User: Fold this.
Amino acid sequence: MKYRYLRYPGGKLKAVTFSYDDGVTADKRLAKLLADRGLRGTFNINSGLWGNNGRITPEEIQEYILRLGHEVAVHGEFHRASGVISTADGIRDVLRCREAMEKAFGRIVRGMAYPDSGITRFTGDHTYADVKTYLTALGITYARTLAGDNDRFDLPCDWHAWMPTAHHNNPAVMDYAAKFLALEDKAGMPPRLFYLWGHSYEFDQRNNWEHMEALCDTLAGKDDTWYATNGEIYAYVKAYEALEFSADDTIVHNPAATDVWFNADGRLYGVKSGETMTI
Assistant:
């Protein structure tokens, strides 16, 4: 039996993605900053607040975010912490946000970033298991959490508790980026992901847009790196997991609608959508 490890499209070891919350007007500047460098991200929106108090409108989201190749995800209708509100309120907050965005943008929205304290704090008898159960029932396939900055660059084991690499203001973030960029593909190495999150209004508050520009310049333009949205990464990993192998690992079939790459015992393979091949 071969040791197999996912590789991103084109056989790449590494991926970079961004996740920014609240749908504020500074998102327009951030979305362009990313797109100008070939970077892509996910913008997490509160549908009940858009167009009010510094929040962008659906029309602005379409023009300045979606048109540039980014995606949107649920951030709750009214930005309410999943671990604190009742299950019924949590369901309403997520479902109404998802429905509003799908209606406004004419696309399926299945991702999420937890608003407020999310699943870092619970009150009463609320549990993460309860939250994960209703998110799954509502069709939310992944949800980003926070407060676990690290330089391991792992893909999540639990997609409803997806931990990013770092907040952009983490003092070690440039060191994390340097460590990530220095990684080289070799047998036995799992896929690596650099996942940055934050709020674009923080750059205005701290007057440090140059920090984000420098970080993005550092990460951009690498031949061994796939630049994708959160949802694209989730979908690609699921396509890899759907690969079908013969009992002796010598035949593989790809039933997914996308081509998939993997490393098996140090050798790179690319399996086209619908293809069956010998390895």
